[in-house]
Amino acid sequence: MSGRTGTRIDILVFDGVDELDALAPYRVLRGATWSGADFAVRLVTLRPAATVTASAGLVFAPDGVLGDPALPDILIVPGGGWGTRSEVGAWGEAQRGELPAALRQAMTDAPEMTLATVCTGAMLAAYAGLTAGRRAITHHAALADLAGKGTEVVPARVVDDGNLISAGGVTSGLDLALWLVERFAGAEIALKVEQNLEYERRGTVWRM
Fold first, then answer.
1. What are phi and psi of 130, to 5 degrees?
2. pTM of the predicted model, to two decimals?
3. CA pair distance 143, 193, nearest whole angstrom
4. Segment 22-67, tens digit of pLDDT
5. I need a labelling partner for 86 at 20 to 30 A (CA). Which of 2, 44, 142, 170 fits?
6. pLDDT at 3 exceeding the cut of 80
């Protein structure tokens, strides 16, 4: 975007986010930079925050705020807390509406941006109206909720519907991130990251 080189990737985090949803993709994507990918990867919040407290109690400091200084090329939205209808987490964020509204505005402001979701992060995109008429997947506990938002649910581990990419439950964030590495930096680097992590990708990437 805006004549920049490289690919800027932001992972949007919030209190109650599932640690693995957010940090597994972060580790994969940072590993890709060590293997030659021209990525800049950040953990960002919607509003300025000194720390974020994740669902299992991990407290960490985000790197910045979404949109500052500019919207990324790829925005990853994790989930957490949907199945328990927790007020702190993706369910609570969906009910309050500010985060889905911000996602909708971001895609309006930067239509070339790729939106990627992990687990019930797909529900935040759905509440933003971004999955209606599109193909996507989420955690099994939210499949009916996702379909109820007009989404065509595809039972694959990762679903690539162009500028909307989604992954199923929790650990599928690893596979989503590796697919992003392959798609945006090439299969050779994706393979290097897999080998360094001693992880073999699981399931199918459904793509158009």
1. -95, -10
2. 0.97
3. 30
4. 999 999 999 999 999 999 999 999 999 999 999 999 999 999 999 9
5. 44
6. no
Separation CA 139–CA 195 (nearest Å)? 27
Q: Can you tell me the distance from the alpha carbon of 176 to that of 118, in angstroms, rounded to the nearest whole number?
A: 8
Give the position of tokens 């800027």: 8
Q: How far apart are CA 175 and CA 118, in angstroms?
A: 10
116 neighbors 139 (Cβ within 8 angstroms): no
Please give the Cα distance from 123 to 92 (Å, whole number): 11
Q: What are phi and psi of 147, to 5 degrees?
A: -60, -35
pLDDT tens digits along 172-192: 999 999 999 999 999 999 999
Q: Both ends of the chain: CA-CA distance in Å? A: 24
Pair of tokens at residue 100: 């889905």
Residue identified by tokens 């964030």 is 173
As a whole number of angstroms, the distance between CA 168 and CA 18 comes to 13
Spell out the domains of the chain, with CATH numbers in brackets. Answer: 7-198 (3.40.50.880)
Pairing of β 152-153 and β 59-60: unpaired
- Degrees to nearest 5, angle at CA 77 with 58 and 9: 95
CA angle 176, 93, 9 (to 5 degrees): 35
Tokens (6 digits) for 23: 């940090």
